[in-house]
Amino acid sequence: MAVVVGREDLIKASSIAAYLHGNAGWATRVATNDISAIRKLRPPLSHSVYVEFGPRSHAVVIIFGAIQVYTPSPQARIDLRS
């Protein structure tokens, strides 16, 4: 998606490619935090991805409305308002 919206430089400058190829030490894990606010934004039994960019970027992936995966992401220094 970042490439589609013209942010391919974010992907190239980050360690996302290394992670996708199994060469990075990201701390992706099953999420145990309360994500009820995110769950209210999506239909039941759906796949959803919530991404937050900033100094502490991260994502929560919900699979089939049940399995939660937390993924810390590289720091983003972009202004998405422009």
Mind sketching the topology for me?
Elements: H1 8-13, H2 16-20, E1 29-30, H3 36-39, E2 48-52, E3 58-63, E4 67-72
Antiparallel strand pairs: 1-4, 2-3, 3-4
Walk me through the structure.
The chain is an alpha+beta fold. Helix content is 18%, strand content 23%. Strands 1-4-3-2 form a 4-stranded antiparallel sheet, with no helix packed on it.
Brief account:
With 82 residues, this protein is α+β, with helices and mostly antiparallel strands. The chain contains three helices and four strands.
Number of DSSP helices? 3
Unreliably modeled segments? none
**Shape by Cα distribution:** globular
Mean pLDDT: 77
The rounded Rg comes to 14 Å
Q: Classify the beta-strand content into a percent band.
A: 15-25%
Q: In total, how many beta strands? A: 4
Distance from N terminus to C terminus (CA atoms, Å) equals 17 Å
Helix content: 10-25%
Strand arrangement across the biggest beta sheet:
1-4-3-2
Order of helices and strands: HHEHEEE
Q: Which structural class matches the secondary elements?
A: alpha+beta
Largest sheet entry:
4 strands, antiparallel
Feature tags:
23% strand, 4 strands, 82 residues, single chain, alpha+beta, 18% helix, 3 helices, four-stranded antiparallel β-sheet
